[in-house]
Amino acid sequence: MRANRARDTRPELLVREALRAYGLRYRTHERSVPGRPDLVFRAARLAVFCDGDFWHGRHWTRLRAQLVHRANADYWIAKIAANRARDVLQRRALRKAGWMVLRVWEGAIRRNPEGAARQIASALESAHRTRSIRAPQRVRLSGEPRRR
Predict the structure, then answer these.
(1) What is the pLDDT of residues 60-90, one digit of tens each?
(2) Helix (H, G, I), strand (E, B) or coil at 148
(3) How big, in percent rounded to 5, are the helix, strand and coil portions of the chain?
(4) Cα angle vertex 25, ends 93, 50, to 5°?
């Protein structure tokens, strides 16, 4: 359990690398934002969470059925259910504070980090449009991201 990281996980680093290729700037694990999102775009008020498939219960119905047959099932089911409930509370608090929330799953990031970055960039453009903030010119949604 000690080896499981709360920040700077491999999927998070993959997304950050892909976002840098787009030229997007962000803050990480901002303490002043409810829920301490993995990535924060302050001007657009966009909070991005890179959620682990196991820890946040992706495909929860199937995962829960599998956990029933494993060791210490009651603990793990309660733990992941509490994580999911906390995620809902964080999302509500952020939306109530005027933030747009985007959750990206670990498996999707590992399969296609550029696709996850495109999804974030698209949400960022949408947030800029709805808040009537001038979108940065650096965002490239079509074609390949800029390489340095």
Answers:
(1) 999 999 999 999 999 999 999 999 999 999 9
(2) coil
(3) 45, 10, 40
(4) 50
- Confirm if 128 and 42 have CB atoms less than 8 A apart: no
3-state secondary structure of 51: strand
Is the pLDDT score of 3 beyond 90?
Answer: no
Structure tokens belonging to residue 29: 């694990």
Taking only the tens place, the pLDDT of each residue in 92-128 is 999 999 999 999 999 999 999 999 999 999 999 988 8
Are 102 and 49 in contact, with CB atoms under 8 Å apart?
Answer: yes
The arrangement of secondary structure in 10-130, i.e. its CATH architecture, is 3-Layer(aba) Sandwich (3.40)
Q: What are phi and psi of 126, to 5 degrees?
A: -65, -45
Helix (H) or strand (E) holding 11: helix 10-22
Side chain identity at residue 66, one-letter code: Q
Find the helix or strand (DSSP H, E) in which 117 lies: helix 113-130
For residue 143, with 0-12 CB atoms within 10 Å meaning exposed, 13-18 middle and 19 or more buried, which class applies?
Answer: exposed
